[in-house]
Design brief:
Elements: H1 2-14, H2 24-35, H3 38-42, H4 52-62, H5 66-79, H6 94-106, H7 110-117, H8 121-136, H9 139-142, E1 155-165, E2 181-182, E3 187-197, E4 203-211, H10 216-222, H11 230-237, E5 240-242, E6 254-255, H12 263-283, H13 287-290, H14 298-317, H15 331-385
Parallel strand pairs: 1-5, 5-6
Antiparallel strand pairs: 1-3, 2-3, 3-4
Helix pairs in contact: 2-4, 2-5, 2-6, 6-8, 8-14
């Protein structure tokens, strides 16, 4: 144990917390040092830096693996987009970057974080939000609508709204603001509109935040003042989205459930919606979105939501992709179904033809009998007149 302890402190002293060349192993060590005690780190079988227990501890606190955190750290230095109001000379620190990830994942109060990190509340607040804004700024590189979805592709993305509970905003007249009522959370909330690429593990569209009182149909058609609406974007590129029944009324831009769809189309739409819900579940793994958002206003909620979306996008790019829509579907099943349906149609047509021919023959026999009866009546009348 003493030998392991010496190795621990020697490696920690050699790490440059401001360097851009930090790898996954160095970030794992920094994260474990911040979140766990030395005794807990070393109380594992084998090498503490390759132990599955320590790797899972890191992910439980930061919401992403140390490999994803290394990818984010590298992108922060490569993109180098400074948010408005921040000094470009402010140095990034891996400790504060991990604290920002931990804040999104665990969303602890300042009193709890102050005791854990031995920093003042003002210092925690300043550098945590600084690094959150830097992560949020990566959305311009990570979350973009592709220029070309493919000529043969009609459906490009699945669209759905994600709601999060928030504190009740003050209203000038009433005790509650109906514009902020979320039908999903049954209380005040804020929401975002997300579009997930159908055939790739990629978040292609993000628009918000909006008050939760407006439903997904309104967000899809009207959008926001900065990005506009997804309906306008899809109309400009000539593509369609796949949505649930709340997006009815836009057949040229969004396809929803249709009772006349074939079995294969219904199955495809169902799998697309299930895949999108999986991404929503990945977002709700972060406590800042799963629980009631404590901060007032839409600005900070937008920072946290968009930073979380960037982290989830990095997770999908590094070993956690979404499911394949065509996995487990065999083309033979659809062909068999189509052949069966064709056979049924042909058999129904032949039976209808036979029934119609029988009907015609029976009608001809009836006409012949009627003529014979008429002739017999005529002969009878003639005999009586004589």
């Amino acid at each position: 144990m003493k030998a392991k302890s010496l190795i621990l402190f020697e490696t920690m002293s050699e790490i440059d917390v401001h360097g851009a060349a930090l790898g996954p192993n160095e970030i794992l060590r920094c994260g474990l040092e911040l979140m766990c005690s030395e005794k807990k780190i070393l109380r594992v079988d084998g090498d503490p830096w390759t132990s599955k227990t320590n790797v899972q501890r890191f992910k439980d606190h930061c919401g992403a693996s140390h490999c994803v955190a290394a990818h984010i750290w590298k992108d922060l230095h490569a993109v180098n987009q400074v948010p408005e109001g921040h000094s470009p000379n402010a140095k990034l620190s891996i400790h504060w970057c991990l604290e920002a990830l931990r804040f999104l994942c665990r969303c602890k109060r300042e009193s709890e974080r102050e005791a854990a990190f031995d920093k003042s509340r003002k210092t925690l607040r300043k550098w945590c939000w600084c690094h959150l804004k830097r992560i949020q700024a990566l959305k311009s590189e990570k979350i973009v609508v592709p220029d070309d979805f493919g000529k043969d592709e009609v459906w490009t993305m699945s669209v759905d709204g994600v709601h999060s509970a928030a504190f009740e905003p003050a209203h000038a007249v009433f005790s509650k603001d109906r514009k902020c009522f979320s039908h999903k959370k049954k209380r005040a909330g804020l929401c975002y509109e997300l579009g997930v690429h159908v055939f790739e593990s990629k978040l292609a569209w993000m628009n918000g935040p909006f008050p939760s009182g407006r439903n997904d149909n309104g967000n899809f058609a009207e959008g926001g003042p900065e990005q506009g609406s997804l309906k306008q974007k899809l109309a400009s590129i000539g593509k369609k989205a796949l949505g649930d029944k709340t997006c009815n009324g836009h057949p040229s831009e969004c396809s929803t459930f249709n009772a006349s769809d074939s079995r294969s189309v219904k199955q495809f739409k169902s799998r697309v919606q299930m895949r999108h819900e999986k991404f929503n579940g990945m977002m709700k793994e972060f406590s800042c979105l799963a629980n009631c958002f404590r901060h007032r206003g839409e600005h900070k909620f937008g920072i946290c939501f968009e930073a979380t979306a960037v982290i989830c996008q990095c997770r999908m790019e590094n070993g956690e992709p979404l499911c394949d829509l065509l996995a487990g579907i065999r083309p033979e099943e659809d062909s068999d179904f189509e052949s069966d349906s064709d056979d049924e149609e042909s058999s129904s047509e032949s039976s209808s033809d036979e029934s119609s021919s029988e009907t015609r023959s029976s009608s001809d026999e009836d006409d012949a009998d009627a003529d014979a009866d008429a002739d017999a009546d005529t002969d009878t009348d003639a005999d009586s007149s004589e």
